[in-house]
TrEMBL record:
Keyword Repeat recorded: yes
Tree of life domain: Eukaryota
Keyword annotations of the record: Cytoplasm, Leucine-rich repeat, Repeat
Location(s), subcellular: Cytoplasm
Keyword tRNA processing appears in the UniProt entry: no
Protein name: LRC14 protein
Any GO CC annotation of this UniProt entry: cytoplasm
InterPro entries linked to this entry: LRR_dom_sf, LRRC14/PRAME
Organism the protein comes from: Ardeotis kori
Phylogenetic classification of the source organism: Eukaryota, Metazoa, Chordata, Craniata, Vertebrata
Amino acid sequence: SLKLPYSNVDVRRLAPGTDAGLRCLAAQLGKLPRLKELDLGSSRISGKLGQLLGDLQVPLESLELPFCYLLPCDLAFL
């Protein structure tokens, strides 16, 4: 399990084309082959959920996204 609520993940502060930090976080999550539960509560990841979770090696059993402003593209990814 990995809990990152209020973790200051905020894609709104990224200038277009400068999401290296988000890509780095996604790559690091992809290196956790036994990750089953992820809590990103109150993270501002609007429109980037696919990019953030796209490197996961196995499907999550539990994904907590309370108070995250998700966009239709995020829901389509899920």
